[in-house]
Amino acid sequence: MQELFIRTDSEDHEAICWGCGLRLLLPSNAPIFKCGWCGAITNQNPRKCGSRCSWWRRLRDRCFLCVLLVFMLFVICGGVWAVYPIVFSINYFCGIFHSIITIVLSVTTISSFILVAFQCAGMPPSIQWGFYPVVGKGDLENYTFCHHCSKPKSPRTHHCCSCGMCVLDMDHHCPFIGNCVGAANHRHFILFLISAVISAIYVSIMSAYAGLHIWPPLTYKIGRLNGFNMDLAFGVMMEVFVALLRSALLLSARGLVLVYLFVSTVSVEIGLSVLLWQQLCYIYQGKTYLSHLASQENEQVGKEDCQNLFRFFGCPYSKSRYLPIFWRSRKRHKW
Question: What 3-state DSSP class applies to 41?
């Protein structure tokens, strides 16, 4: 086995590269060094995740996952129970149309949620390491060693303490899905956000539409209007608000469910819309959330391009791919 030496004028100490097994002579004050042969980076003072903390995070993720599942099922079942008797009583064909929309949105949202929550977020590529004859020049360039998984970690891989594994192109760990968002399920996560936002908007509109048909009549009295001023406008708003509260006491169980559906779905669609916009901005920049944080520290700017969005959603080809076949397969003769 060959030996690679790095000599300095200061006091040196011997270290072994984990990637190729070659011996290195390093300064005594070098906690992090890079092998000159295979390119592997060694950190002699790694940070370790506590087992208690990881156990608590897994328990927290399971609780959030169950809460989100119960909420989605309640929105679907409660919306069908509260909205559709009113919709069908107004127009039968309109009720059938909205039933089809509900089925499509429910299946899309739940299926994308199952894929992103129970699918592996992304395994890092397997590569040979540890021995000089096996590891060639630059085979482990910028690779680091994960002391938790006891295997090499590529530059685009991060170790998640909550999941207890290394994830390729890790974006973040989401406690509400109980899983990481990485290379294997990032696209499903975006599809889940899109379908969830569309579903929340649809439920809020339908619950408001149904609530207007069963809301008790408002009984309020406005005094004589003499011009317009702020005190008069505030007084009218207060009277309307008090009238709404009084009429809400007369609502049935179906009406209370409609009010809850409207308030909760509006809150959910606002939060998910912000998260979806943030994710799409990172994808447009060709980054993940973690790489965005790293680029802020290193002051690196990614290449912003719409091709990043096309590539992310599975459209990596240029426009020439969609030209007619005979145009792309035309033979060129050399003279």
Answer: strand
Does residue 174 carry a catalytic annotation? Answer: yes
**What is the rounded average pLDDT of the residues 182-202?**
93
Helix 186-214 to helix 253-284 angle, to the nearest 10 degrees? 150
Write down the catalytic residue from 35, 160, 166, 174: 174
The interaxial angle of helices 51-90 and 186-214, nearest 10 deg, is 40
Pull the structure tokens for residue 283: 């994808």
Distance in angstroms (rounded) separating the CA atoms of residues 209 and 203: 10
Rg (C-alpha) for the chain, rounded Å, is 30
pTM, full prediction: 0.78
User: What's the CA gap between 269 and 198, in Å, rounded?
Assistant: 8
Distance CA 150, CA 152 (A): 7
- Distance CA(244)–CA(246), nearest Å, equals 5
Question: Which tokens belong to 29?
Answer: 């004050």
